[in-house]
Structure formats: structure tokens, C-alpha cells
Fold this protein.
Amino acid sequence: MNAPVVIRRDDSLTTTDLTVEGVHCASCIAKIEGGLHALPGIATARMNLSTHRLHVAHAPAIDAATLVRTVEGLGFRAHPFAAAESTGEDSERRRLLLALGVAGFAAMNIMLLSVSVWSGADEATRGLFHWLSALIAIPAVAFAGRPFFTNAWSALRRGRTNMDVPISIGVVLTTLMSLYETATGGEHAYFDGAVMLLFFLLAGRFLDSVMRARARDSVAALLHQVPADALVLAADGSSSRRPIADLRPDERVLVAAGERIPVDGIVETGTSLVDRSLVTGESAPDPVEADGEVLAGTINVAAPLVIRVTRTGDDTAIADIARLMETAHQVKSRYVRIADRASRLYAPAVHTLAALSFLGWLIAGAGVHQAATIGVAVLIITCPCALGLAVPIAHVVASGAFMRAGMLVKDGSAIERLSRVDTVLLDKTGTTTLGRFVPVSGMPDDVATLSILFTLARGSTHPMSRAIAMAAQQAGAVALPAAYLSEQAGLGLEGEIAGVHCRLGRPDWIAGDGALDYDRTAIAYRVGEQPPHLVVLRDETRPDAAEAIARLHRSRLTVEMLSGDTPAAVAELAATLGVAAQARMSPGDKYDYVRKLQAAGHHVLMVGDGLNDGPALKSAEVAMAPGNASDVGTLAADIVFLGDRLMPVPLALAAARRTMTVVRQNFALAIGYNAIAVPLAILGQVTPLIAAAAMSGSSLLVVANALRLRGAVR
Amino acid sequence: MNGILLLIPFALGLGLAGLAAFFWAVRDGQFEDLDGASMRILIEDDRDD
């Protein structure tokens, strides 16, 4: 039984929310929840897979740090989630869902009564049924119509109009007119139409908000990358942990191996390797020594460093990137969605039409009652049922197809924006390539040597030695007992394994300068007194990169590669793949390049993974990131694709274009329906039965058309 | 006519009961994690809670 344990209103409990990364399956949920329940003092732990948030109710004695450590011990990255970040979006979606439920309930029950009226209920029964309908409809409209009424009112107050204005006027007038008809014993009441209209429109709104809820703000995640405190060394040699907000320039902090560096600074003592992939996107860690500069958010890989603080908090390079991303986000939100553009034309047209029909019938000599009935019929028949569903249903079906193809779409409008793209910018490391080293030659064949390498290599977290360890393990290596094992920062590993002294590390360290000849990333090993061997490693290109890029070219898209890497490394890959490339681009350069293309009228898709791509991802019209991207990359992207292939990029573009074709067809269907129904309404031929049939008919047609998108990703 | 007088309140009452159940479910947060709900049925769980 996996429902939460219900312990309510127990004052002795406090709650903590954590954001947990890398949760994507049932066993992950079970592992996290099970693991936390095993901890004494935990009352409930509930992992929300949609929001990646873990809600824990626990005894006050347990603090957030303990929970984070427990979750990390289970193999997931976690950080405390500030409650203030909880958005109004969730409560808005809940309100829409409740409204949808009420409208659905009312529509079904009123329809039950209406069918009896249509099939010929007589005078007294019809009156009774109309009154019963009014009894259900009026509270239902008052409740379920609120999302529209409040929007319409706030638009009108500012002297504007939107889709909600004709909806609100239509629904309110229809309800009032039906009430008048009921009170005067009239033949036609449109309660069913009014409520059904709300139901269909709310369904569209709800789907839309479900799509939007997946988009999360990435800036907060960026600042999670900087640790909250640092070990400060005082002049007298004592040390203390202090929050980084309190640090001042020229203070000295100690960063242990494996820790993130909390500040921008200069290395005072120590020699180590720093993984700068967060900032530069380069996969190989850089060596640093005394007087070298280090940036906040990068990881000290090899040995302890003493760093003299130069900049902290908002002045650091990572905070600069965060600011750049925030600005970029405002650029993107200026995009006007197709549904909104349609509604700008739609609202005035509907109002004019209804008013003209009313006046026309008055002039033609009809009574006020008849003219008003017809005016209201025009309003209700033109109400944008199908129009309100046309876009969200296509987005939802298409994003389902994207998901089955291993792509997660975070925002419905991303599909719209993607369909207009004419330029694709690819990052190199981690996007065009896999972002991890793979040995391409020089691995030993015999299991004995492989096992020695495996034993050595797993002693370090350096990406190259991890690559060796993984390759060796796949080739059947087993761990051997080691008499001793030590890591020399920036050089390599040495140890005595199975009685033999062996080393794994930088080729010049193993064999002396120039003794081994290599022109690429390589690592050497030496077992005992045997001659040294060289293993060449490469950050492997995604297996189908060339094919995917060829397909992009065939779709007449401009493809370019942007990288922070060296010109030599970039040129080689670009030549093999046949794309133009730019090397040594800083995060700011990439951002500027995207802006420059956009200023020239291009629609840009940015595909990138690292923090260094963050601003470019944010400023591009659409952004995609591979699933193994940094948090910032994943969060800044509109679409995240999983797996080792690059093909999702052209697939997504093709699917987005198909989706927009269906959206346009849906608009055509909705408008075509109006073209038939509106003349009938103007001529006064619309009965409640026709209105109900036309409304649900056109909505079903639009939904059915959108369902064709289930196989859109191909 | 007597049938109607009995059946209509009965039908409406059933509908309202369903609506009340739906409100309870939404307020209880059962629609908060639809992705998770689709996964949870796969959890083989032998916790006795």
C-alpha cells in the first residue's frame, strides 16, 4: 500500500520540502520514500514526480541537512526547497479543476432534463424541468464561470478586450435570457448550452495550465550551484564554517577535494584540478596551481586548495550568468501565442455580429424580445468552444507523442515556437558529443591488466579515470586487493596491486617527457617494469549526429555549432559533421550571437547542455537540452531529450511543424463551423437542441483531428 | 408524475455525491501528481502501513 501514512494535525511534526533530481521511475519513488521511512522520526515522505518535489513530515529533531544527506545516500541529488517559491500556478490549476468538475456535473444533469424537453415534454413538465435546470445552472455558472469573469473584468477595467469578454457576456446573457424564458413559461431555455460552453472552455484552459505547470524557473536552480557556507581560515590558523554571505574579499577559504568552490578567488596554496564544466562546458578538468583563478560553482576535483576570496555572492561570475538569464527570459515571454492572436481578432468580430443581428431584427420590425433572443443565440453559437480547444488539445496530444519518443515538452507554446525555427545552434561538448570520455584505443586485452587498471582508476573521480574504470568493468575486470593506493593531484594514481607497483595518469608523468607520442587526450599506465602504454580517449560524438545534422540540412535549416572549446577541437568535429562552427565562445558570446541572429530576423533553436549555454538557451526562441545536461541547461530548455541520440532534434522540428498544421486545420474547422452556424443563428433558426449539437459536434471534431498527432514524432 | 418526483431528486443527489467526492479528491491533493500516480501502481510495496 503506497498511500501516505496519515498523521494529521499533530503539532509535534514539522514539514520540509526538498527538490530531488533524477527521479523518473516507480522504483526511484519507492527507493526514496522507503529510504526515508526507514529513518526514525519520519512520519510521511511523499515524492511528487510531476514537480520533482519531496514533501516530508518529520519530528523537529531532524533538520533539512539530514534529509538531504539521506536522499543523497540513496543516490539522488537533493536540495532544500524554499517554501516561498511555491507559485500561484498550482492553486490556479486547482481552481480550474474544481470549476471543470462543477461545469461537467451541471452540464450532464441539465442535459438529462433537456433531452426530456426536446423529446416533447408538455407544458407543466417543461416548466418544472426548466426551473430545475435553472436551479442547477445558476450556481454552476456563478462558480465555474469565475475564471472567465475575473479575467474579462480586469481586461475591461484597463480598457482592453480579450477572449474572456465575449465568453463572459455570452454566458451571462444566455443565462439571464433563459431565466426570463423560464419565468414567462417560454419554450426555449439555453441553460444546457451555457453550462456546456463553460465545460469545454474550462477543459481547454485546464489542459493549457497542465502544460504550463511543467515549465519551472531556472534561475533559482542556478544559485543552488553555489554552496551556502565555506570553511574559513583565520590568520591565527583556526578555522570555522561561515555562511558565504559573510565572507569578505581577501579572506581565505579551504576547499576540500570533491567540493564545489563557494567564491570567485585566487589560489593561494595547493595544486589541483578544477572541473569548470558548469561555466565553460569543457569536459576535461583544468589544472590549477598557486596564483590561478577559480570561479564559484566549479568543482575542486583532486586535492585541497586554499583560496583567497576576490568576489562573493552577487559579484561572482555565476551570479552574472544568472542575471543574464533573467534578462533573456523577459525577451522570450514577449512571444504572443497563436491562440491569443486569434482571440484579438475574434472578440470584436463576435460583439459586432451579435449587436448587428439585434439591431437588424429590430429594424426589420421584430419585437425587442425576439431580437434579443436572436442576438443572444448569435453570441452563444459563436462562442469559441472549438477555438478554445483547438490549440491546447493539439499541444497535449503532440507532447504525449514527444514523450513517447523520449522528449519532454515543458511548455505548449514551445511547440508553436519550434515550428517557426530556421536556424539551429548546437553546443559541442555534451550536446553534439556525449560529454563523457570513451577510450578509443590502447585498452589492454587481458583481464589481469584490466583488473589492475580498474582497481587504480576507480580510486579517482577524474572523468578520464572514470571512463577507464567503466570501460574496464564492461570488459570483465574485477577489483583486486590493493596494498596501497594514492592519488597525486593533477598527475595520476599509483598503488601496489597484487604485489606489483603500478601507475595510471598523465603520459609525461608515467613515462617522462616526450617518451610517449600523442596528439589527443590520452592517459598512460605502467604495470611493474613493463613499458608504459597509452590509452587514447575521446569525448565521443553522439552516434547519429551526422545523420541528424544531414536531416536538418534537408529541412532547409541553417545549422551552426557554438563551443567554448579550443578552435582545433571544434574545427575537427565541425568538419566531420559538415557544419559551420565558432570556437572559444563565452556564455556572454553565445548569448550575443543568438541575439544578433534574432535581430537579423532569424528564429533560433538553441541546443545546449551546460550552464555556459544557459543565457543562450534562455534567449533563443526555443531551447532543447539533452537529459544529462546540467540543472541549468535542463531547466532553461523548453524541450529535454533523453538518450544518447541527437536525432530528437530534427524529429522535434518535424513534429512541431505537423502540430502547427493540425492547429491551423483546427482553426479552419472552428471557423468553418461558425460560417455555417452563424447564418442560422442570425436568421433565428437556432433552437437549444441545434446549439448543443453544434457546440459539442465542433468540439469533438477538433479533438478527433488533434488525436491524429499521436504519431507525429517520426 | 410520482416517479419523476422521486427519481429527479435521487438522480441529482447521486450527482451531487459524485461532485462532493471530486471536490474532496482535489482538495486532498489526488490530482497533484498525475505522473507519479501512473508510476505508483508499479511499486511493489510490502510496507505494512
Remarks:
- Chain B has a mean pLDDT of 80.
- Helices of chain B lie at 2-27, 34-40.
